[in-house]
Design brief:
2 domains; seven-stranded mixed β-sheet
Length: 416
């Protein structure tokens, strides 16, 4: 594969560490990295790359600021700083999203909208977030401001939609706190439904401003299909989908298992997940709004006290970059599900967690790296772990009640 023209700001941005490196070499380096960390446990299969590794990000975040001359700029924070590096276009970001952000820069000038100053706390526009459903073509624009007042909001929306009729919803998010967090708690819908939808592995998913959705849908399908294939479902399994987000992998797995309960701390994501299950007519999935680790602790404790409390055959886990915490892993071991499928975005914390699980009753059976983030150092990995079946582990199954949206422990059904 030929190397495209190197991005002019990549050294300042720090987002793409493999600029100027052929894609074949990137894949080789990532496969070697995963192999070095995970090869001591079991076989590491060849990495799965992309046919077209450019413009794959369906979510683009731009920080708004002014340069020394007072001109409005937008871009990304320089790695490790809060210095804004202007970006006109990016080789890994969706091109339509970049164009929309460029239009917003021009509109800010014509509407005399001031950008937010982090040092003084004055100014209006802080960030712009654009999300696009690659399968549906739907586009969301989130305007993050430091004040609930948006001058000439209706005219601004009309002007933006005139330039980009592809936009299906526009949201005004208010973040008036001196914080490094991008999104605030409050939001108003300025145009459209306030969400977009996308299709992944044949399932339709509702995506809100705050909910997590994988940024590379092409490779997400590869990743999730590999995770489900690795699990070896027979249709009889009861599954927990930990760190479930808007329910993507759990709902995709639902066609292959008896039941799924998804656990997620983000309330907006849980609300989207419930709506997603309804929209897809899925009746064997339920969702719990809780910290995945705490939920597993409570479920394990209940199972220890009552042998009829049902725990899962399979746990699907997709934790954040920091990996799983020890409380979650200890609870996992106490319950002893037959199979664990660990989806990781950080091979370092993955190696740490798998090492702990191997010392406590599990054996890694296979590792499958997937390149979700070309031109960056990041790589996603699926690991299959099986229980070694030490004497005394709990060997019961989960059944879920009919409660909508939540599955409290006292509602977990007991098998006759």
């Amino acid at each position: 594969m030929n190397i495209k023209e190197i991005c002019p700001v990549h050294k300042k941005c720090g987002g793409c560490h493999y600029q100027g490196v052929s894609y074949e070499e990137q894949l080789r380096v990532k496969e070697k990295m995963v192999g070095k960390l995970m090869g001591k446990f079991c076989k590491v299969h060849p990495i799965v790359g992309m046919e077209n590794p450019y413009h794959y990000r369906n979510k683009v975040h731009a920080v708004f600021d002014r340069d020394r001359r007072g001109n409005i700029i937008s871009g990304v924070y320089k790695e490790g700083t809060h210095q804004v590096i202007p970006v006109e276009s990016c080789m890994i970001e969706d091109q339509l999203a970049d164009a929309i952000i460029g239009t917003i820069r021009k509109l800010c000038k014509s509407f005399k909208i001031k950008t937010y100053d982090e040092d003084t706390g004055y100014g209006l526009l802080r960030h712009v977030l654009v999300k696009r459903g690659f399968a549906t073509g739907q586009v969301m624009v989130v305007l993050v401001t430091g004040s609930p007042v948006f001058p000439s909001r209706n005219n601004f929306v009309k002007a933006l939609r005139k330039e980009h009729p592809e936009i299906t919803t526009i949201i005004h998010n208010i973040n008036d706190k001196r914080t490094s967090m991008v999104l605030g708690e409050r939001e108003k819908v300025m145009y459209g439904k306030g969400y977009i939808e996308d299709i992944l592995c044949g399932k339709k998913f509702r995506i809100s401003a705050k909910s997590f959705y994988q940024v590379n849908p092409v490779q997400t399908e590869v990743l999730y299909k590999k995770a489900i294939e690795a699990a070896g479902f027979t249709g009889k399994e009861h599954v927990i989908d930990a760190y479930c987000g808007i329910g993507t992998i759990g709902m995709i797995a639902s066609d292959h298992v008896a039941s799924v309960v998804g656990v997620e701390l983000n309330r907006d994501a849980v609300r989207d997940a419930i709506g997603n299950a309804k929209a897809n007519g899925i009746k064997n999935v339920r969702f719990v709004c809780d910290d995945a680790g705490k939920f597993m602790v409570k479920l394990a404790a209940a199972a220890q006290k009552d042998a009829d409390i049902k725990v899962p055959d399979v746990v699907l886990m997709d934790p954040p970059r920091s990996g799983s915490d020890e409380a979650f892993l200890k609870s996992l071991v106490k319950m002893g599900p037959e199979t664990v499928v660990y989806v990781s975005c950080n091979p370092v914390t993955l190696e740490r967690d798998v090492k702990w699980l191997e010392k406590n009753g599990y054996k890694a059976k296979g590792v499958w790296p997937v390149d979700m983030f070309p031109f960056t150092v990041h790589v996603e990995t699926v690991v299959l772990l099986s229980h070694k079946k030490p004497d005394g582990h709990i060997n019961v199954k989960v059944e879920f009640g009919e409660g909508e949206g939540k599955v409290p422990l006292d509602n977990i059904a007991k098998r006759a």
